[in-house]
Amino acid sequence: GAVVSQHPSRVICKSGTSVKIECRSLDFQATTMFWYRQFPKQSLMLMATSNEGSKATYEQGVEKDKFLINHASLTLSTLTVTSAHPEDSSFYICSARRDGAYEQYFGPGTRLTVT
Amino acid sequence: GQNIDQPTEMTATEGAIVQINCTYQTSGFNGLFWYQQHAGEAPTFLSYNVLDGLEEKGRFSSFLSRSKGYSYLLLKELQMKDSASYLCAVRDWSNDYKLSFGAGTTVTVRA
């Protein structure tokens, strides 16, 4: 199978601090990783697309200086929420896709709470 | 852009059948996915349709009509564990093959 992990699964941080979330593809190489955000009772909203070795592509309305994405290897992408605020509290989910494949494999998600 | 519509909630009895409809509008259709998501968890892949017709996978089946911009997910022999949110997602080649998700349909299975 194709397994994607995320770390941490839950994080609580104070307003103004930064939080880093890791997304790893455990048994395959992911040329593309996606970062989504999901608010309660809402659907997944794509934040950015991350390609290994190049800059991430952000969706309209997503601040790239606030949500820093790094895809340094074929198995790891990181999302850093900088200067977090309570409105950034959400469920952040990554997914990974093999080169040429259609299916995205989702990580288990990270619940971020900013106090 | 993509407009993806699906009902907000559905309730059914254990052992019954439920059909979740999804309609979409997209510029460059390149496949439709169904995912299951339990509360607080990430989505898990259920099915993929790119050609018209029915795809059957155990208790779950998914149908696609590209000309109508319509799909449905059929859940048979419902079990309590099937209580979850079901997300319809469309891939669009004119949008760099990204997935756009519907808001999800919450299915509640009652004993």
Description:
The complex is a heterodimer of chains A (115) and B (111). By secondary structure, chain A is an all-beta fold. The mean pLDDT of chain A is 92. Chain A is built from no helices and eleven strands. Chain A is globular and about 40 Å long. In chain A, the strands form two sheets. In chain A, strands 2, 4, 5, 6, 9, 10 and 11 form a seven-stranded mixed β-sheet that branches. Chain A has a four-stranded antiparallel β-sheet with strand order 1-3-8-7, with no helix packed on it. Helices cover 0% and strands 51% of the residues of chain A. In chain B, strands 2, 4, 5, 9, 10 and 11 form a six-stranded mixed β-sheet that branches. In chain B, strands 1-3-8-7-6 form a five-stranded antiparallel β-sheet, with no helix packed on it. Chain B has 111 residues and is mainly β. The termini of chain B are far apart. The model of chain B has no long low-confidence stretch (mean pLDDT 93). Chain A binds chain B through residues 34, 42-46, 49, 57, 91, 93, 102-109, 111, and chain B through 31, 33, 35, 40-45, 48, 50, 87, 91, 96, 98-104.
In short:
Helix content of chain A is 0%, strand content 51%. Chain A is mostly beta strands. Chain B is built from no helices and 11 strands.
Task: Describe the main β-sheet of chain B briefly.
Answer: 6 strands, mixed
- What is the string of helix and strand elements of chain B? EEEEEEEEEEE
Give the N-to-C terminal Cα separation of chain A: 37 Å
Strand content of chain B: over 45%
Which oligomeric form is depicted? heterodimer
Evaluate the radius of gyration of chain A: 13 Å
Mean pLDDT score of chain A: 92
**SS summary, helix count of chain A:** 0
Number of strands of chain A: 11
String of helices and strands of chain A: EEEEEEEEEEE
Considering residues with a beta carbon less than 8 A from a beta carbon on another chain, report the largest interface and each chain's count: A-B, 19 and 21 residues
Cα-based radius of gyration of chain B, to the nearest Å = 13 Å
Structural class of chain A: mainly beta
